[in-house]
UniProtKB/TrEMBL annotation:
This is Branched-chain amino acid ABC transporter permease. InterPro entries: ABC_BtuC-like, ABC_transp_permease, BCAA_transport_permease. Pfam families: BPD_transp_2. The chain crosses the membrane at residues 6-26, 59-78, 90-112, 132-158, 188-210, 265-284. The keyword Transmembrane applies. Signal peptide: none annotated. Belongs to the binding-protein-dependent transport system permease family. LivHM subfamily. Keywords: Amino-acid transport, Cell inner membrane, Cell membrane, Membrane, Transmembrane, Transmembrane helix, Transport. The keyword Plastid does not apply. It comes from the Bacteria.
């Protein structure tokens, strides 16, 4: 087994999980909602990228930007239509709504285009590089670079821009932020837009990496990205990145050791262990909650 090759493959897969997990953790950090429809935004992004390349004849980067834009709009629509009225409702009501939105997007997609899978077109050069005896594909490297660039842009937005400061203020205390003149509704919508755009980018990267997309493809990656967010510390942006990368490497190693049927189970074993031994995640801090 070539360790370098497996680690690079794991990091490439983990970077896709990290992009999806960032949407979970951003939304949770702002309004304490687990948006289970997020995995389906990832699926929509993959199909938008597919049609942009196949029908509109766009290259990879323009297709990626189109997928991110439409996914961002979809995220804002979901927030305005489904979640905005439930901000003061119980968490179980918001959770049930999120599951309902997820099913609506999945089966709405099946109704519109059918359930058949599509083969994602090859748009990136697939060269093989030899590094210390390991065979590393140029696609894996390119996907990793795209993911790193998007994560750095997100960090810049959150820490260096006006909307990023507003997001941090709302996540800390929404009522105090409102009193200070911050438009909370607009900030929450911006959070959904940014998180959904990253999910759309992850969908295109996933299509290029695995070459097959279908309407229910967001279920398992969405759940794994949720595991990654919890692993790193839900609500903490660097934690989502770390959690995604760790999960990707673990899955790849499980497959490399010959236990491929268990690679999906490994993610949920990690979730159980993290909830038992460190519920706050790798970067989280234990805080008391009044009830």
């Amino acid at each position: 087994m070539d360790w370098i090759q497996q680690i690079v493959n794991g990091i490439s897969l983990g970077s896709i999980y990290a992009l999806i997990a960032l949407g979970y953790t951003m939304v949770y950090g702002i309004i304490k909602l687990i948006n289970f429809a997020h995995g389906d935004v990832f699926m929509v992004g993959a199909f938008v990228g597919f049609y942009a390349i196949e029908s509109w004849k766009l290259s990879f980067i323009p297709a990626l930007l189109v997928a991110m834009g439409i996914s961002a709009v979809l995220g804002v629509v979901i927030e305005r239509v489904a979640y905005k009225r439930l901000r003061n409702a119980t968490r179980i009501a918001a959770l049930i709504t999120a599951i309902g939105v997820s099913l609506f997007i999945e089966y709405g997609t099946i109704y519109i285009r059918g359930a058949q899978p599509e083969a994602f077109p090859s748009v990136l050069p697939d060269q093989i590089f030899k590094v210390f005896g390991a065979s590393i594909s140029s696609q894996s490297i390119f996907i990793l670079l795209i993911s790193i660039i998007l994560m750095l842009i997100l960090q810049f937005i959150v820490h260096r821009t006006k909307i990023g400061k507003a997001m941090r203020a709302v996540s800390y205390d929404a009522e105090a932020a409102r009193l200070m003149g911050i438009n909370v509704d607009r900030t929450i919508s911006a959070t959904f837009a940014i998180g959904s755009a990253l999910a759309g980018a992850a969908g295109v990267a996933f299509g290029v990496y695995y070459t097959k997309i279908e309407p229910l493809m967001g279920v398992i990656p969405g759940l794994k990205a949720f595991v990654a967010a919890v692993l790193g510390g839900i609500g903490i942006i660097p934690g989502a990145m770390i959690g995604g990368l760790v999960l990707g490497i673990v899955e790849t190693m499980v497959s490399a050791f010959g236990y491929s049927p268990w690679r999906d189970a490994a993610a949920f074993v990690i979730l159980i262990l993290i909830l038992i031994f460190r519920p706050s995640g790798i970067l989280g801090k234990n805080t008391r909650e009044k009830v």
